Amino acid sequence: MYEAFELKVTFCVRGVISPLLANLFLHYGFDEWMRRTYPGTPFERYADDVICHCRSLQEAQALKAALDVRMEQCHLQLHPEKTRVVFCRDGNRRVDHEVFQFDFLGYRFRPRGAKSRAGTLFTGFLPAISPKATKAIRQTIRRWRLHCWHTVALVDVAKEINPVLRGWVNYYGRFQRSALHTVFDPLDRYLERWLRRKYKRLKYKVRRAREMLRQLRRRQPTLFVHWALAAHGRQ
């Protein structure tokens, strides 16, 4: 088993430039250069965020040094804090290294416990929703102010927000779907506040509102997408 390192690269574009021009510039300044100069090094790039797959620490460090020179030629620079060499630590690769996780496309890649198809437990270098993406989802939920929707029925609340919830679950649930179970906890807290505004008898009854929500969830486990997600995870 060879050592596996990722070079996580973020570019800094000097001056004001549109995303379209920046993407075009990086296509010729980075993508084509990598294919010519390092044809044996796979990479993925989205906008100014790049992952380069290296087999050893020496290879990753050499590539980073070469990229410093290349970006200087293109009047660009690597982001000093976001460009890092990351070791892909797992159950078989245990090399001591300072950095062993990175974020890319809303996922955090790091060592995680998992179960193989045969049912055995192992530690793999795997992706799951990143803390930054989790924070963004919760901020969106907060902006909905669902507790102020108490003039409509709960089923209408579900119809309104389920398409967004489904998009999040389909994207971030592609890997390690169980990591999403706690992401939507604030949403249930807002639904409890919705109940307390909807029904006067629950206005000051936090525990009773929470219990009513639990009962609704048991009776209609697919009413909200995140309820269905949790119900499926318990099966």
List descriptors.
20% strand, alpha+beta, 7 helices
Please give a structural write-up.
There is one protein chain. The chain is α+β, with helices and mostly antiparallel strands and 235 residues long. Helices cover 46% and strands 20% of the residues. It contains seven helices and eight strands, in the order βαββαβββββααααα. The protein has helices spanning 19-37, 57-73, 131-144, 154-172, 185-198, 206-219, 225-234, and strands spanning 5-13, 43-46, 49-54, 76-78, 84-87, 102-104, 107-115, 121-129. The strands form two sheets. Strands 1, 2, 3, 4 and 5 form a five-stranded antiparallel beta sheet that branches. Strand 7 and strand 8 form a beta hairpin. The radius of gyration is 23 Å and the shape is elongated. The model has no long low-confidence stretch (mean pLDDT 90).
Outline of the structure:
Helix content is 46%, strand content 20%. With 235 residues, it is α+β, with helices and mostly antiparallel strands. A hairpin with a 2-residue loop joins strand 6 and strand 7 (107-115).
Q: Any chance you could write out the topology, listing elements then pairs?
A:
Layout (H helix, E strand, L loop, with lengths): L4 E9 L5 H19 L5 E4 L2 E6 L2 H17 L2 E3 L5 E4 L14 E3 L2 E9 L5 E9 L1 H14 L9 H19 L12 H14 L7 H14 L5 H10 L1
Antiparallel strand pairs: 1-3, 1-4, 1-5, 2-3, 6-7, 7-8
